[in-house]
Amino acid sequence: MPKLKSLDELRELRSRLKHEIKARTETATTITVGMGTCGIAAGAREVMQAFLDELSARQIDAHVVTTGCIGMCSKEPLVDIQQGNEPRITYGNVSPAMVPRIIEEHLIGGKVVQEWAVGRLVKEA
Amino acid sequence: MADLHRADVLVSCRHGRTPELVTALRDEIERRGLAEEIRVVETGCSGFCSVGPVITVRPEGHFYASVQPADVPELVEETLVKGRFVQRLAYKEAAGRKAITRYEDLPFYAKQMRIVLRNCGMIDPRSIDEYIAVGGYEALGKVLTSMTPDEVIAEIKKSGLRGRGGAGFHAGRKWEATRRAKGDIKYVIANGDEGDPGAFMDRALMEGDPHAIIEGMIIASYAVGSHQGYIYVRDEYPLAVENLTLAIQAAREYGLLGEDILGSGHSFDIRIVRGAGAFVCGESSALMQSLEGKVGEPRAKHVHATDRGLFDRPSCLNNVETLANVPQIILNGADWFASIGTERSKGTKAFCLVGKVRNPGLIEVPMGMTLKQIVNDIGGGPPKFRKVKAVQTGGPSGGCIPASMLDIPVDYESLTEAGSMMGSGGMIVLDDRTCMVDISRYFLEFLKEESCGKCAPCREGIKRMLEILVAMTNGTAKAGDLERLETLAKTVQTASLCGLGKSAPNPVLSTIRYFREEYEQHIKDGYCASGACRELTAYVIVDEKCKGCGLCIKVCPQEGISGEQKQPHYIDQAVCIKCGACYDVCRLDAIKIVPKAAVSLGGNGGNGHGTPAATPAKDKPGAAKGKA
Ligand SMILES: Cc1cc2nc3c(=O)[nH]c(=O)nc-3n(C[C@H](O)[C@H](O)[C@H](O)COP(=O)(O)O)c2cc1C
Question: What's the pTM value of the predicted model, to 2 decimals?
Answer without folding.
Answer: 0.91
